[in-house]
Design goal:
single chain; alpha/beta; Rossmann fold; about 40% helix
Amino acid sequence: MREIQEDYLICHPFKSITKFDSKYMLELKNIHKSFGEREILSGVNLKLEKGNVYTLMGANGTGKTTLFNIITNFLKADEGAVFFKGKRIDNLSPVTINSLGITRTFQNLRLIEELSVKENILLAFKGNKGERIWNALLPGIFLKHNNDCFEQKANEIIRKVFLDDVAENKAGEISYGQQKLLTLGCCLANEADILLLDEPVTGINSIYWGKIIIIINEIKAIGKTVLLIEHHADFIEAVSDKLFFLTDGKISTFDDYNQLRNNPQAKEAYL
């Protein structure tokens, strides 16, 4: 039965057979974090529901990426707890958290530049284990021996992230905007329920903005939850259901960008 379920998920990348009763996909409770004498996060509370897109805003150095690192346990909080689908996860390794269903991008994109676009996506598959990973590191061998379901799924994801014309190009040879699209493709391949996107449109032009907006809206439409860090107002307004503003170690919540824009504290700190 386990093998049947795994094969089903491999061949149907956007379906899920997992059920849970918790109201919130992700919940942070009373998160504190200091670096030396400076307290970055001071009792942060955060709740994310299924199928919504949230934007985390704040001035540089206020702790936005630190919060991502704490959620994925690349960094330990000094105090507080992180829950995913009602289960506490801040005692788990980053690899285990990823396997449970939380994936992320980084400001440094972390692609394998010597592998092709398709091979990077194949490596990101949640079910892509063992010999498939080693095959991916041997040029010319991976795709010959790869399971048809994996290749079919990779091609589907490549189309979804608008990289059809560079699928066989090395990741290090495509444009920066295309590399940003590829990181989103790797997140889709991971089949996670929550995507943490760190500045997905920073440094790219409006053509790629539009493509990333389409991708995020499609991710939302299939019931995934997105928390992103971004600064660009037009992009934030196009994708966000709710905004979180981080300042002085605490988070304020806003229903839309206009509400945030009219907040005196946000104006003083950021806008």
